[in-house]
Amino acid sequence: MSDENQLQMQYDVQERTIRCIIDETLYPLEAIYGASYLFIDRCFVFLERPEDKKVQVSLRSKQEASEDELEALLGEFANELLNQVLRWRVSEATAQIREYTMARAFVSHPAQTSIDALLAELDAEELEEDELEISVPWETNDV
After folding, report:
1. In the chain, is it the N or the C terminus that has fewer CB atoms within a 10 Å radius of its CB?
2. pLDDT band at residue 113, thresholds of 50, 70 and 90?
3. How much is the pTM?
4. 120: helix, coil or strand?
5. How many CB atoms lie within 10 A of CB 110?
6. Of 85, 73, 110, which is closest to residue 34 (Cα–Cα)?
7. Which 8-state DSSP code applies to residue 14?
């Protein structure tokens, strides 16, 4: 286990796998899940809870990888964690505004009103006589 390195994270490397422990007081679980999901196409991601408010993330390369490559993968994961935390916090901060906007959109512009107006316009429209005498299914023929 490294004490301090260029990533400023403690990690452990073994057989194509790099592990680190993430503190949930710094990174919400939703952010950890979000970052993990974005890495599942690149590596196998395993999450464990070694203790309360801690999540161990194990990133296992799908192919042979050097220690430098695994460190780079963990660095990208750490960057994505920060991105997910920011997205989560913005989402939390703007939740009430989004709810208000959606409620306002549904109340002020009901979809049924526009459909009713279109149907009324079609009913009011007079159909011209058809020179080709193509019958219209809703018209009755007086033969």
Report:
1. C
2. low
3. 0.63
4. helix
5. 10
6. 85
7. E
